TrEMBL record, chains A, B:
Protein name, per record: Acyl-coenzyme A oxidase
Species this protein is from: Rehmannia glutinosa (Chinese foxglove)
Residue span, Acyl-CoA oxidase C-terminal domain: 536-679
Polar residues composition bias: residue spans: 1-11
Annotated compartments: Peroxisome
Keywords: FAD, Fatty acid metabolism, Flavoprotein, Lipid metabolism, Oxidoreductase, Peroxisome
Length: 695, 695
C-alpha cells in the first residue's frame, strides 16, 4: 500500500487533466503512428462482445415496456390521478392569483388527506418508496401541491420523526398526519442558505423557567423562504444555535439544534406573541406555496420542544449527547434530511417525463416544410429536432432507472441503517439531485423552444413546469454545493483506497480498477470504431469510468500541490471547476451503470432491444459531448471520435422511429400531462387546442 | 478559378469535420512529434504581436467606459426611463392578471406616445437606430410594452410603410403614429409559422365589385398568435394567397401577398362582419400583449387595400409586378421585415445586460462559507461562480458591439439600398437574432440559479425576464430556421468564391483567406501556449475563422455527396446539425471581429485595457468550449488546450476583479434594473429586499 501511495505522490504533471505529454510516452506514440499507417484488419471491425440491436427498426411493445418501467407503487399514483380527475374544482386553472393559488393548494392537500384517504405521513419512515411515489404523482397534478406536501410531511413532519424522540412522535404524529398541525421547517435565514452552520438565530436555555428563548439577533437572521409560514402554519421546526448558560464563561454555544416553536394560535390562527411573520411574496413559480419570513422576539418554548435525538438539555441545564462533537451532531442532524433530496431527484424525473412526452408528441404532429412538391414533413424528421429531443428522451430513461435505484437504496438504508449504505445514499442523493434537476431545468427550456409558438401557450405547460421546477436546483441543497459534497466523498474514497480500506457500494469501480483506469490509454482500442464496439457496454462504461478516475486522480494531485501555498480552502477553490466536473462525471458513470443493469434485467426481448438502443444513445451522446477531454488524453483517436459522432446521430434517428412508443411507455394519461398539443391521440391535439381558445 | 474548383471536388474525406488522417500527413506528424520532444525555446514564449493587459489588476474608469459604450441615442432612452419613473401608476406590478396587464400595457403605450411625446413611428424608416434605441428602453420598462410597440410600429406600421405605396402611407401614417389605428400583423397561422409560403388564407379578387374576399379555408389556416388582435386592434395586415379569376384555368394563385383588413368598427370597437376573433389566452410570458386568433368568413375589402409595392392588381383583374416570379416577390416581401430581427437581437442584449447586472452585483454582495475562522467570502470569489458569470459578462460586451454594428449597417442599408449590404444585413440579422436570443435565454436561467433562493423572488426579476424573453427565440423567425438561412448564405458565398465573384462585407475573411484556412494546421503554432500568443487577436480570429472555413468546406463536400442519393432536401437534412454548427461558428467569428475592432477603436487607454481583457475572455472561452473540434483536426495540441483552459480560468478571475465596474458601465439606473438584490449601492440591497417583504 505504501508503495502505491508513494507512486501517487511522485506521479508527474502529465496525469493532470490536460497532460504535458512527457518523453516517457513517446515510444507509445510512435507505435500508434505506425499502427495508424497500417491498421491490422481485425482491429477495424472490433469485437462484438455483446450483440446490439442492429440496423432494423425495432418493434416496441409499449404495454410490455410500460409494465417494466412502472414502479410497484403505480396503484397509489393512479388513486391520486383519479381523485383529482374526479374533482375539477380542485384542478389548478391556467391563470390564478397567488392568494387564490395558496388557498386552492391547501384545499388540494386537505382533499388528498381527508377525502381521498391518501395519508403520506406514515410512509415517510416506514415505506419511503411509497411516499416518493405519492409525491411524484401529486407533483404532476400541481407542483405547488407536491412541495406543500413535502413541507408538511418530509420537512416539518420528517424533522419531528427523525430529529425528535418518542415524546415528540406521540404528541405530534396524529396532528401532522391529518393536517391539524400544519407546520414549517425554519432553517434558511436571509443571510444563510447553504452554510447552515452560519445561521444566527439563537435558542438560549433559561434554567429558571425551564424554557428556551428563541431570538432573531439581526435582520440577516430572519428565517426566510419558510414554506407554510406566510398563511397556514401553526408550528415551525426552528434551527438555532443552542446557548447554555455557563457559570464560568457566561454562556456556551452548543451548535445548531432544532426546536419546535408554535407560531400561530391553534384557535384564532393569529401569530403568537413575539413571532413576527411576513410574506416573502410572489415567486418565479410555486405560488401555491405560502413562503414566509419569521422574526423571533424572545419567544419562549418549553424545554421539551428541543428535538433531542442527537443532543439534549437536562432540567439543570446540562448538555448530553451520544455524539462526541458539534460537527458530528450537525452532520447527524443534516443527515436525517437526505430524504428530501431523494424525493426531489425522483420528482424531477417526473417533470422531465411530462415535458418530453409533450415535446415528442407535438414534434411528431407538427409538420413544416418538405421536399419540393411533396407534403410537409414532421418536425421530428429534422435532424436538428432529433438532436434536441432524442438524447433528452434517452436521458429521461436513464434517470428513471437511476432514481429508482436511489429510492431503493434509501429505503434499504432506512431499514438497515447500514453505515456503508448511509455514505452511499448521502453522496448519490446529493449528486443525482444536483445532476438531474440541472438537466431537467435546461431541458424544459429546450422543450419549449423546440415546440415553437404553440409551446409558448400557457395551456401547453412548459412555462409552469419550468417556473415551478426551477428552484429544484437550489432548495434542499444548492446544486453547486451538493456536487462539491460528491467530489469530497470521492476524494475520501480515493484516500481510503490507498490506505487499503473498503469502499461504499456505488463506486466499486474505483476500487476494482483504479489502476487500470489510470494507465495510459490503449493506442489500439483508441482507434476502434466499429458499431459493435461502440455499442458494447464495456467500452461505454470503461470510457465513463476512465474519465472519472482520471479526473479524480488529477484533482487529488492538484489539491495537494495548491494546499501548500493556498491552504485547503484556497486549494479547493482553485480546483473548483475541476471538482464539479469530477462529480458530474461520477454521477454519469453511476447513471450509465444502472441503465445497463436495467437493460440486462428486462425480461421482454423487444423492450430490452428498445432499452438497449436508448442506453447506447445515452452513453455515446455523453461521450461525444465531452469529446475534447477524451481527445486530449488520446483515449479516443480522431477516427473514433468521428465514428462516435456519426453513430450518435444515427441512434437519434433510430430512437426517433420509436419515439412515440417510448413516450407512451411512460404511461402518463392525458389528464395528467394535460397539454393539448401533447395529447396521445394526435388527431385530437389541434382541435383540443382551438377549442381551448374558444373555437 | 477552375483549378481551384477541381481541387475542391477532389479533396479527399480528410477535410471532413473529423478527418480520417491519411498517409499524406504522416510526415508532418513525425515532425511534430520530434518538435514535441525538443521544442525550440523561441516557440514556448510566442511572439507578442499585440501588447496585452498583463497580470496587474486593471484600473477601470467606469465613466469613461460608459461614455464609450453609450449609444448616441442615450438621450431618448433616458427620456423613456424618466417618463415611466415619474408615473408610478404606469409601472407594471409584480403580480398582475392577464387582462389588467393588457390594459396597463395599452395605457403605457398611449402615455409614451401621447404624453411623453415619444413617437417611434417616424423613425421606423427614417432613423431606425433611434427606433431600436427606444424599443430597447421601452422593453426594459416592461417587455410586453416593447413587444406591443413593436407590433404597432415595426409590424403593422412597418408592413404599411414597406409593403404599401404612397396611397397607404397617406391614409394610415397619422393614425398608426398617434395610436388611433392600433393594428395587427396577421401572418402566422395555426398550422404554419416558419413556412410562410405554406399559409392557406386566401384573398380572391372579385372583379365585379372591385374587391378582395378574404377567407379562412380551414381551421389550420386560422391566423394565430396575432398581437393586438384579442383586444385592441382595429386593422390587420393579413398575409394571404392572392387568387385571381382566370378565364382559362378558373383561377390563378399569385402567391402570398399582404392586405389591410379592418377587423373592428372604428366607433363601437365591435368585430366587423365575417371577422371571428378569439383570445389565444395566457402565455408563458408577455401577458401584456393581447394575442388573438382570427378567422375570416368571406370578408370583403377594397382593391386599394392590397399592399401593392411588389405586385398589384388592376381594375380589370390583371396582375402587374416589377419582379419576375412568385419566389422573387415573396423574398422581397419578407425581406422588408428584417428590421424586426435587428430590433430583437438588440433588445435581447438589453435583457442580458439587466440580468448580468443583477447577478453580478448580488454575487459580489452575497457571502457564504469561507476559510476556517475567517469571515465568509463573496460567492463571486468562487471559481464556479466566476465560471458561470464572467464569460457571460464578456459575451454581453461582445454582443453589445455586434448588435450595434448590425443596427448601423441596417440603417445604412435603409439609406443606400446597396445590394451587397442587403444580403449582409439579411444574413447577419438572422444569425445574430438566433445566436444572441438563444444565448440570452440560457443565461437568464443560469443567472437565476446563480443567485440561489433570492433569485427566485419575483421581485428580483429573473422570472419575468426569462418568461418574457423566451419567445424571442421563436418569433420573427425560429432560431433553428434562421441559422439555416445563415448557412445557406455562407454556402452561396462559398460557391461565389470559386466562381471568382465578390463577397459581401461581413465575410470578407472567407474571400481573403479561404485557402490558408483550409490548409493543414501548422504543427508548430498548434503547440504555442504563451499568454501573449493566446491573447493575440490574430490567433483568436484565425482560430474562429479556421473553424468556420473548415466547417463550410466540409459541409459543402458532404452536401454534394448526399445530394446524389437523397436529393437536395434530404441531403440538407442529413447535414443539418453540421450546418447549424457552421452558422453559429460564422456568427461567433463576426462577433469576435467586431469586438476586436471596438477594443482597437476605444480612445481611453484604461477602458481599452478593460475591453481587451473582456474580449480575450470571450475569445478563449469560446475556443475552449469547442476544444474537441480543434483537437480533432490538431489545430490545437494538448499542451495548448491545457494552456487555453488555464488562461480562461485566470481571465475569469481577472474580469471578476473589475466586474463591478464592468456592469456599472452598462449605465442602467436602479429604477430600470429594479431588483432589490441588484442595487448599485450594495449596502442597501438586503434592506430594500426586506422592506419589500414588509419588514
Amino acid at each position: 500500500m505504501e508503495s502505491d501511495e508513494a507512486n501517487t505522490t511522485n506521479r508527474p504533471a502529465e496525469v493532470d487533466r490536460f497532460p504535458n505529454r512527457d518523453h516517457a510516452i513517446v515510444a507509445q506514440r510512435v507505435q500508434r503512428l505506425f499502427l495508424h499507417l497500417n491498421p491490422p484488419p481485425e482491429f477495424s471491425d472490433a469485437v462484438a462482445l455483446v450483440p446490439c440491436a442492429g440496423r432494423a427498426k425495432i418493434d416496441v411493445n409499449t404495454d410490455q415496456l410500460s409494465k417494466y418501467m412502472r414502479g410497484k407503487y403505480r396503484d397509489v399514483q393512479q388513486r391520486v390521478y383519479d381523485y383529482f380527475n374526479s374533482r375539477p374544482e380542485l384542478q389548478t386553472p391556467i391563470e390564478i392569483s397567488k392568494d387564490e393559488h395558496r388557498e386552492l393548494c391547501m384545499r388540494q392537500l386537505m382533499g388528498l388527506v381527508r377525502e381521498a384517504g391518501i395519508k403520506p405521513f406514515r410512509y415517510v419512515v416506514e415505506d419511503p418508496a411509497q411516499y416518493f411515489a405519492i409525491l411524484e404523482a401529486v407533483g404532476s397534478v400541481d407542483m405547488s401541491l407536491g412541495i406543500k406536501m413535502g413541507v408538511q410531511y418530509s420537512l416539518w413532519g420528517g424533522s419531528v420523526l427523525n430529529l425528535g424522540t418518542k415524546k415528540h412522535r406521540d404528541k405530534y404524529f396524529e396532528g401532522i398526519d391529518n393536517m391539524e398541525y400544519p407546520g414549517c421547517f425554519a432553517m434558511t435565514e436571509l443571510h444563510h442558505g447553504s452554510n447552515v452552520q452560519g445561521i444566527q438565530t439563537v435558542a438560549t436555555f433559561d434554567p429558571v423557567k425551564d424554557e428556551f428563548i428563541i431570538d432573531t439577533p439581526n435582520d440577516g437572521a430572519i428565517k426566510w423562504w419558510i414554506g407554510n409560514a406566510a398563511v397556514h402554519g401553526k408550528f415551525a421546526t426552528v434551527f438555532a444555535k443552542l446557548i447554555l448558560p455557563n457559570d464560568i464563561k457566561g454562556a456556551s454555544d452548543m451548535g445548531v439544534h432544532a426546536f419546535i416553536v408554535p407560531i400561530r394560535d391553534m384557535k384564532t390562527h393569529i401569530a403568537l406573541p413575539g413571532v413576527e411573520i411576513h410574506d416573502c411574496g410572489h415567486k418565479v413559480g410555486l405560488n401555491g406555496v405560502d413562503n414566509g419570513a419569521l422574526r423571533f422576539h424572545s419567544v419562549r418554548i418549553p424545554r421539551d420542544n428541543l428535538l433531542n435525538r442527537f443532543g439534549d438539555v437536562s432540567r439543570d441545564g446540562k448538555y448530553t449527547s451520544s455524539l462526541p462533537s458539534i460537527n458530528k451532531r450537525f452532520a447527524a442532524t443534516l443527515g436525517e434530511l437526505v430524504g428530501g433530496r431523494v424525493g426531489l431527484a425522483y420528482s424531477s424525473v417526473g417533470v422531465l417525463k411530462i415535458a418530453v412526452i409533450i415535446a415528442v408528441r407535438y414534434s411528431l404532429l407538427r409538420q413544416q416544410f418538405g421536399p419540393p412538391k411533396q407534403p410537409e414533413i414532421s418536425i421530428l424528421d429534422y435532424q436538428s429536432q432529433q438532436h434536441k429531443l432524442m438524447p433528452m428522451l434517452a436521458s429521461t430513461y436513464a434517470f428513471h432507472f437511476a432514481t429508482l435505484h436511489l429510492v431503493n437504496i434509501y429505503s434499504e438504508m432506512k431499514k438497515t441503517h447500514d453505515e456503508q449504505l448511509v455514505g452511499d445514499v448521502h453522496a448519490l442523493s446529493a449528486g443525482l439531485k444536483a445532476y438531474v434537476t440541472s438537466y431537467t431545468a435546461k431541458s424544459l427550456s429546450i422543450c419549449r423552444e423546440a415546440c415553437g409558438g404553440h409551446g409558448y401557450a400557457a395551456v401547453n405547460r412548459f412555462g409552469s413546469l419550468r417556473n415551478d421546477h426551477d428552484i429544484f436546483q437550489t432548495f434542499e441543497g444548492d446544486n453547486t454545493v451538493l456536487l462539491q459534497q460528491v467530489a469530497g466523498y470521492l476524494l475520501k474514497q480515493y484516500q481510503e483506497k490507498f490506505r487499503g480500506g473498503t469502499l461504499t457500494v456505488t463506486w466499486n469501480y474505483l476500487r476494482d480498477s483504479m489502476n487500470s483506469y489510470l494507465s495510459q490509454p490503449n493506442p489500439v482500442t483508441a482507434r476502434w470504431e466499429g458499431e459493435d464496439h461502440l455499442r458494447d457496454p464495456k467500452f461505454q462504461l470503461d470510457a465513463f469510468r476512465y474519465r472519472t478516475s482520471r479526473l479524480l486522480h488529477s484533482v487529488a494531485v492538484r489539491l495537494r500541490k495548491h494546499s501548500k501555498t493556498l491552504g485547503s480552502f484556497g486549494a479547493w477553490n482553485r480546483c473548483l471547476n475541476h471538482l464539479l466536473t469530477l462529480a458530474e462525471s461520477h454521477i454519469e458513470s453511476v447513471v450509465l451503470a444502472k441503465f445497463i443493469d436495467a437493460v440486462r434485467s428486462c425480461p421482454d426481448a423487444s423492450s430490452r432491444a428498445a432499452l438497449k438502443l436508448v442506453c447506447d444513445l445515452y452513453a455515446l451522446d455523453r461521450i461525444w459531448n465531452d469529446i475534447g477531454t477524451y481527445r486530449n488524453v488520446d483515449y479516443v483517436a480522431p477516427n473514433k471520435a468521428k465514428a462516435i459522432h456519426k453513430l450518435t446521430e444515427y441512434l437519434s434517428f433510430q430512437v426517433k422511429n420509436v419515439a412515440k412508443e417510448l413516450v407512451d411507455a411512460f404511461d402518463l394519461p392525458d389528464y395528467v400531462t394535460r397539454a393539448p398539443i401533447g395529447m396521445q391521440a394526435a388527431e385530437e391535439a389541434y382541435s383540443q387546442y382551438t377549442q381551448y381558445a374558444g373555437f
